[in-house]
Design brief:
Layout lengths: L12 H4 L12 H23 L3 H13 L2 H12 L9 H11 L13 E6 L7 H5 L2 E7 L8 E2 L13 H4 L3 E5 L8 H11 L14 H4 L4 E7 L1 H4 L6 H10 L2 E8 L3 E8 L33
Parallel strand pairs: 1-2, 1-4, 2-3, 4-5
Antiparallel strand pairs: 5-7, 6-7
Helix pairs in contact: 2-3, 2-4
């Protein structure tokens, strides 16, 4: 008697799709880190060449950067690093703090109750912030990868006027892995100085309840941990001094294996605070293995 044929298992949908419809293979974690490091290194070398007036070297480095995929490849690598599979969504830390410090009953569910946030350097729209229900988020990036992310340079956005700050200002500004991307130390300082112009206090149309006033307005700042743990010119004490000089008080801080996160409350330029305090490039740690990250404030 002939043997019965076993029924064939149906192919997985992914196996039946044409090659063009299959999901692109993702980079390994090692390859992702390597691409991001190379991009940052080339950006710093370009900036250094420009500062030294070496236009030929800067052009050659730009060509090398473009050949390696440029900003688009960097963003793709960054998005993979922020994927849930790799646990890289820094907005989880921010939402953890916001949920801890502010009640969702007061700041969620209605447009009037939600906090307005400006997310600079946004790569994704489906992060923890977008799912919280507590934030009304405006997202910008130099090279948008999504229609809900505006293509915009933060340094070029017109500052809200006293008459428009209640409408155009924000309760939170997020700079997650943005400051370290800026290749020049002075430009990093200018970026931090600019943030407060977009933050609205309760007197300027911001959230005014007692609970919120202990937290808002706020700056969420995330940096690669080595920027403060292994830099020749920067540590956490110096960073805090810079932020205090700009009118901020540290509310929360978390040091992870790869990143360091801060939530700074902006108190403004009150008694004993001045915007004329500069911070130059100054060696804090010695050693050949140190990186050169720093932030310079000039007035």
């Amino acid at each position: 008697m002939a043997a019965k044929k076993r029924p064939r298992k149906p192919l997985l949908l992914s196996h039946t799709r044409p090659a063009s419809a299959k999901k692109k293979a993702s980079l390994s974690s090692k390859a992702t880190r390597s691409l991001i490091r190379k991009h940052h290194t080339l950006q710093k070398q370009i900036q250094s060449a420009l500062l030294n007036g070496d236009d030929a070297s800067a052009e050659s480095l730009r060509a090398e950067l473009a050949a390696s995929g440029g900003l688009q490849k960097y963003q793709e690598a960054s998005m993979q690093g922020q994927s849930s599979e790799r646990g890289g969504d820094s907005s989880k830390v921010l939402m953890g703090w916001i949920s801890e410090l502010l009640s969702k009953e007061k700041h969620g569910g209605t447009e009037h109750g939600r906090l307005r946030m400006l997310e600079v350097g946004a790569l994704k729209v489906d992060n923890a912030c977008s799912r919280s229900g507590m934030l009304d988020t405006t997202r910008i990036d130099l090279h948008s990868q999504h229609p809900d992310i505006q293509t915009q340079d933060f340094m070029d956005i017109p500052k809200p006027s006293p008459e428009t700050i209640s409408r155009d200002g924000f309760d939170i500004v997020s700079l997650s892995l943005v400051v370290n991307y800026v290749g020049d130390a002075v430009a990093r300082g200018e970026m931090l100085k600019r943030v407060s112009s977009f933050l609205r206090s309760d007197k300027q149309g911001g959230v005014g309840d007692d609970e919120a006033q202990t937290v808002l307005p706020a700056l969420f700042l995330a940096l690669p941990a080595p920027c403060v743990t292994n830099s020749r010119y920067m540590d956490e004490e110096r960073l805090e001094c810079i932020m205090i000089s700009l009118g901020y008080v540290k509310n929360r801080r978390k040091l992870g294996k790869k990143l360091v996160y801060y939530l700074w409350r902006y108190e403004g330029m009150g008694v004993g605070k001045t915007q004329t305090v500069g911070f130059k490039k100054q060696e804090i740690r010695s050693g050949a293995s140190r990186n050169n990250f720093t932030i310079v404030l000039q007035y």
